[in-house]
Inverse folding.
């Protein structure tokens, strides 16, 4: 058993590190360094300015005279940085999985209606059942949990529908369109819910919809970490079938890939990552759509052996960067997350579309 | 020595299962034999069921009735994995593999052999390199797939099938989008692979000329009649080609192996230089004349050399033409 496990990990690392071009290998240390810098930035820099030495002292477990600072670092900055790190990786990998499965460079977590499903669940709870976001600190934890469960429930329902249709509709582009339609249906229900809800609740829902990495408290963090790490590990196990799918489903089937099972696994994995992230952080736009393109452009390859880990790392970096950019320099003002992500995401997508003739992976 | 059948079908019925147990049968009672070491071409007009037959043999859709045996074993007894070790396919399906290298694409052919993460071992690399070598694309192995021409792309897909190490390779219209030279190259390549590596190769095509030229065996398919199988020459001489492809206003000429648009009627005598008279004949047929031996009382053409044709009209006046265009214009006005 132990030998088997050892062999598994050996294969795992060989798979990620072996057989790559020399210049591609350099991305791992570079991205890890960038990631560390951004992570440190997230811990050291925020709306409230705390001296660097104090932050380090607090993280090392030494006491400090400022109890408020200690609270900010432990209860706010640390969970927020970890959340951004994992949420970015999750959304980016989820986007990559969907782009490869649907063979469409513009597929993303929000397009399949998974985010809309989560939105609908949250809308139902926040607008009618009295649950709310902990934007206001004094709300009961039960209400907050209800929001997360609702988001998860909504996303899983849409995912179930998509998987159901994936067995009926063989064509992936058609399935993508069904996903978009389900998204519209969810949105229409949300607008009905919004129309009849009271103003303050609509406001709270809109606030949630702006996206936020700070919604996960230290107590909830283990759940978030658990779900996303499971999803991310699963995505790494899907590297081989993902590469075969580059040739299309018929070729992949001829290479021994079990198409039906693989489709469901990929959809489940992408769904789990999107649902978890949306439930905890709200619907975050553009990271899932743009980061796989950034990774492909960096690597100059769509081979998933490198693409999956690099997408994961770039996703983390981009999310941490967005998290930093949310805080307006020199002021205590904070931008909503979904105001920042398009600033990074939209130019990438426009660049990719304008230059699609010169970008290899479009063929 | 008895031939080994790579694929053998018995009373095979192909088509689609509809709802409530109904079936749409495309072709039934097929008894076919695909031989190792030979290139077999599947010919038929659009809608004849070529794709359905290929899809059935590729395992993409189940047969409606009858039996398929691969290498002597029933298709039903194959697991998906064993099937992928036996049959390699080259399809017309569009791929999204532009962003990987030729080497990486061919290495996908090793998928059935590699472990969970698709890690390539030494033997895999050797086989990939041999496959690249066999189709003559080694020099492009580190190029992106999107940088290839259509012909090179087809070669790479064939190399992928070779890397799969299957005794049987099925190709769906491999020459469809290629230019003339690449078509011939591809067919020559397939023929060589069949001979050298004892592969059983079946390909569907609309290329009558190439199939007659390069196919060891042809299968002529049309709805509602038995498949005609045999060497191209036998099928031509027995009149099978005429009966499969001859339609209103279109005839199959068994001497040239070509389809002609209409039956030529007016005889025109042709004599002289072999090359020139051959192509003069071609022009005559296109314009509704029938090349014939020289005789009095008809138009006769003497082909002296390239660029010099002497036409004797019915009133025995002689006119000189230096090109086919002049000749055709002359014939049109008399």
């Amino acid at each position: 058993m132990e030998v088997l496990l050892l062999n598994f990990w050996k294969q795992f690392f060989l798979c990620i590190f072996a057989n790559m071009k020399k210049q591609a290998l350099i991305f791992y240390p570079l991205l890890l360094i960038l990631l560390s810098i951004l992570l440190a930035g997230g811990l050291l820099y925020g709306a409230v300015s705390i001296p660097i030495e104090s932050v380090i002292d607090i993280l090392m477990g030494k006491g400090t005279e400022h109890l408020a600072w200690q609270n900010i670092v432990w209860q706010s900055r640390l969970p927020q940085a970890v959340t951004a790190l994992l949420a970015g990786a999750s959304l980016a990998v989820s986007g990559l999985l969907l782009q490869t499965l649907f063979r469409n460079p513009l597929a993303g977590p929000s397009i399949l209606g998974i985010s809309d499903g989560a939105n609908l669940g949250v809308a139902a709870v926040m607008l009618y059942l009295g649950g709310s976001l902990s934007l206001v600190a004094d709300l009961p934890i039960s209400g907050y949990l209800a929001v997360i469960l609702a988001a998860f429930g909504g996303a899983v329902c849409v995912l179930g529908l998509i998987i159901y249709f994936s067995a009926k509709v063989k064509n992936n582009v058609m399935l993508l369109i069904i996903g978009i339609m389900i998204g519209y249906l969810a949105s229409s229900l949300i607008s009905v819910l919004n129309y009849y809800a009271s103003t303050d609740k609509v406001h709270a829902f809109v606030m949630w919809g702006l996206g936020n990495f700070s919604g996960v408290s230290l107590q909830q963090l283990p759940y978030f970490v658990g779900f996303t790490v499971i999803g991310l590990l699963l995505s790494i196990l899907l590297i081989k079938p993902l590469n075969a799918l580059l040739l299309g489903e018929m070729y992949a089937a001829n290479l021994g890939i079990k198409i039906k099972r693989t489709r469901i696994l990929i959809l489940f994995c992408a769904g789990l990552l999107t649902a978890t992230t949306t439930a905890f952080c709200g619907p975050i736009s553009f990271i899932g759509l743009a980061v796989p393109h950034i990774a492909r452009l960096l690597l100059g390859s769509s081979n998933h052996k490198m693409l999956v880990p690099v997408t994961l790392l770039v996703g983390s970096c981009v999310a941490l960067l967005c998290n930093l950019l949310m805080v307006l320099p020199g002021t205590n003002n904070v931008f909503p997350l979904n105001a920042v992500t398009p600033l990074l995401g939209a130019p990438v997508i426009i660049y990719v579309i304008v230059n699609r003739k010169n970008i290899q992976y479009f063929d | 020595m008895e031939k080994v059948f790579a694929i053998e079908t018995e009373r095979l019925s192909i088509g689609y299962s509809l709802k409530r147990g109904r079936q749409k049968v495309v072709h039934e009672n097929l008894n076919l034999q695909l031989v190792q070491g030979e290139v077999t071409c599947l010919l038929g007009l659009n809608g004849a069921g070529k794709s359905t037959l290929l899809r059935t043999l590729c395992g993409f859709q189940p047969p409606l009735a009858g039996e398929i045996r691969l290498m002597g074993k029933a298709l039903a007894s194959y697991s998906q994995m064993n099937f992928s070790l036996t049959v390699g396919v080259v399809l017309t399906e569009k791929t999204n593999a532009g962003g990987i290298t030729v080497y990486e694409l061919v290495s996908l052919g090793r998928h059935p052999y590699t472990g969970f993460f698709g890690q390539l071992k030494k033997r895999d690399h050797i086989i990939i390199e041999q496959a690249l070598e066999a189709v003559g694309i080694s020099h492009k192995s580190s190029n992106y797939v999107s940088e290839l021409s259509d012909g090179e792309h087809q070669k790479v897909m064939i190399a992928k099938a070779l890397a799969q190490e299957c005794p049987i390779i099925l190709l769906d219209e491999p020459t469809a989008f290629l230019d003339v030279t690449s078509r011939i190259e591809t067919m020559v390549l397939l023929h060589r692979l069949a001979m050298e590596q004892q592969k059983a190769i079946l390909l569907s095509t609309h290329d009558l000329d190439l199939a007659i030229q390069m196919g060891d065996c042809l299968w002529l398919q049309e709805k509602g009649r038995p498949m005609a199988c045999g060497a191209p020459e036998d099928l031509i001489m027995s009149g099978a080609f005429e009966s499969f492809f001859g339609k209103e206003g279109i005839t199959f000429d068994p001497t040239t192996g070509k389809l002609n648009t209409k039956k030529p009627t007016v005889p025109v005598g042709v004599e002289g230089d072999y090359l020139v008279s051959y192509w003069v004949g071609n022009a005559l047929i296109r314009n509704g004349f029938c090349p014939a031996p020289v005789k009095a009382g008809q138009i006769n053409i003497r082909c002296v050399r390239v660029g010099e044709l002497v036409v004797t009209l019915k009133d025995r006046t002689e006119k000189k033409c230096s090109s086919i265009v002049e000749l055709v214009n002359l014939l049109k006005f008399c």
